[in-house]
Each structure stands twice: as C-alpha cells, then as structure tokens.
Task: structure prediction
Amino acid sequence: MSTTTVVVTGGAGFIGANLVHLLLESRPDWHVLNLDKLTYAGNLDNLKAAEGRPNYRFEKVDIVDRAALERAFASIPRGGRTLVLHLAAESHVDRSIQSGLPFVEANVVGTQNLLDVCRAHGVERFVHVSTDEVYGSLGSEGFFTEDTPIQANSPYSASKAASDLLVRAAVHTHGFPASITRCSNNYGPYQFPEKLIPLMIANARESKPLPVYGDGLYVRDWLFVRDHCEALLAVLEKGQTGEVYNIGGNNEYPNIQIVKRILAELKRPESLIQYVKDRPGHDRRYAIDASKIQKELGWAPRFRFEDALPMTIRWYLDNDDWLQRVRSGAYRDYYAAQYGA
Ligand code: NAD
Ligand code: DAU
Result:
C-alpha cells in the first residue's frame, strides 16, 4: 500500500498543533511531517502527546530557507502521495503594526518558496490556510462571502492577501492543485496568550488588568479550533483546485462580552477591565458566510460557544505549567538548546 505523507507547516503553533493531534488521531495510517521555524509562537510543548509516535516527525525548518525546505521534502519516501497543509505564518496583527517586514518575509516570501518546492516535488494536494481578515472590515450588516473583494487593512492581513494571490497564481499558471481557506477567529487549547481569549484568561486568573481596545464593541466571529481543523481536513480531502472556502462559526460577539464572560467564569470582578488606547486601523467587524463549505463539502461547526469557551478556560487552568512556561519564555530557552535559536 502506498504511503500518504501530510506535511503541516507551522505545526508547532496554535492551530497547527491542534491539527497535528487531529491528524494522528483520525488518520492513523498517514505520516505527519511538521515543518516549523519555532518562532516565539512555535512551541513543541504543544506536541508532547505526538512525540515518539512512529508516524510523526518534526523538522525545524524556516519556509523562507529554500535549501532547508528542499532537504525536508527530499526526506519524504518516494512512491507515495504528499499532501500539504500550509499554516506557517506570522499571525498577530499588533506585531505587524509594530513591524511589517517579518510578515512579508514569512507570509509572502515563505509561501512562494513553499509553492515552488511543492510543485517540484509533485504534491497531490495543497491547502493554503488564510484568514477572513483579507476581506477587510464590515459594518453592522452583512457577511464575507468568497466573492467579497480583498481589502486587507493591516500589514498582517495584507501579507496574507498577497500569499493568497500567489497561491491563486500557482493554480492559474501551473495548474497547481491548491485550495485556499479563509477562517474567522479561532479559540481553544495552545493559543499563544497574546491573542484576546488566552490573554484575558491568563490575566484574569492572576487578577491583572484586562486591556480592552477602544470601546470594546469590535465584533469577531469565534470558532473552536477543533472545528477549524476538521474543516481543513474536509478541504484537503474533498476541496476543489482553485476554490476558496470560507470557514466560520456563525458566532459573533463584541469583545467586551467575551471579556465579561471570562471574568464571570473565573469569578473575578469587572473592575479588572481596563479600556486602553485603540489598535491603529482596527477592523470593526468580521463575520463569515460559511454556506459554501457547508453545501459543497458537508462541513459545519460542531461545538457551541456556550460549551467550548468554558472548556477552553478549563484547559488553561488545568495546564498552568504550559501557561507559565510560555509567559516566562522558558519554553524558548529549552527548545533553543535542543534545536538552535
Ligand atoms: P501561530 O502564530 O500560533 O503559529 C504560527 C506557527 O508558524 C508557529 O509555530 C511559528 O513558529 C510558525 N512559523 C512562523 N514563521 C515561520 C517560518 N518562516 N517558517 C516556518 N514556520 C514558521 O498562528 P495560528 O494562530 O496557529 O495560525 C496558523 C495559520 O492560520 C496562520 O497562517 C494564520 O494566518 C491562520 N489563521 C489563524 C486564525 C486564528 O484565529 N488564529 C484565523 C484564521 C487564519
Ligand atoms: O479573523 C482571523 C484572525 O483572527 C487571524 O487571521 C489572526 O491570525 C488572529 O490573530 C485573529 O486576529 P484578531 O486581530 O481578530 O485577534 P486578536 O486576538 O488579536 O484580537 C481580537 C479582538 O480583540 C480585536 O478586536 C482586538 C481586541 N483585543 C485584542 C487584544 C490582544 C483587545 O481588545 N485587547 C487585547 O489585548
């Protein structure tokens, strides 16, 4: 029987690690090759349960480094099929506002490099994991569909939009077998505590101030990470070349409501909320119309926010060691000693 190797880029990050766990659990015959640079956002603590599995392998690879990428793909046994789920990226909007160049390098240059190496290798399927942020911002009405014009507003979303166009060009020019996904805000285990939900949980737990940007009425469409990972497998296995699939939870909340729910769940006072200076160029509202993936690929979210938010909070409480190692930076020193800085 021929082997299936699935390459996950960015598999040590939040969504990537959840995806690696899902792959090992649900596709036990597949080999999973995780390629990750281990930036501040990549943490092998997220993959403890995968370590030592005979069908799982990690390689520290920067997707911008052509030679390293080529070596990694050359290590895949010949004769089988290779599938790719591309998640590696700089992902935090606030960091992109501080400095855009690392986003162009990882997200734009890295994606083109990966496309070239994958084409030369003859990969059978490629899923480019993008974001709803490429569509820009909505007013109080309407939803993003796959036909909404690209109107990226932050250096992060602009770099993701550029990578989407490079994938589209590879399909159009070379017949490269890729699909693009655009997902709304994820939450769940292993999310780096610079993003809204884990940051608020971590601060509330320690009774530290909870910084809410602007008026707190910015709206995001929240999706449990497991649902996102299941959608990615549906696109990998059933998606069509050249198609874009929106992925969303149909689950909109203003930020302030999320923050208040977390405080209530942790039995902490609302006096911890601190309204702070707004994010420059802050997108007002994101909301996804996910009817295409539901109709064409039969995917729909399974987790309700009412259940999955408390489950997520519980996970951070039960995994305090993980949180402390991230917040102190200890994980970085530990893995730099093993794999190099
Ligand atoms: P993350 O920041 O938690 O993880 C990113 C991972 O990519 C890290 O492990 C990091 O080490 C790795 N990486 C970064 N640059 C790299 C490079 N040059 N070479 C190899 N590896 C590199 O991000 P996440 O939240 O897990 O997001 C994963 C993907 O999903 C990203 O492409 C992001 O744009 C997209 N996305 C995220 C969300 C969300 O809500 N988190 C929503 C929609 C789409
Ligand atoms: O929509 C998908 C995107 O969601 C992904 O592409 C990005 O990778 C991911 O980071 C996320 O982007 P956001 O900017 O929406 O996520 P973030 O968690 O940074 O912020 C969510 C909202 O909360 C946003 O309106 C800003 C606000 N916020 C955020 C932080 C970190 C605060 O009010 N206070 C904060 O401290």
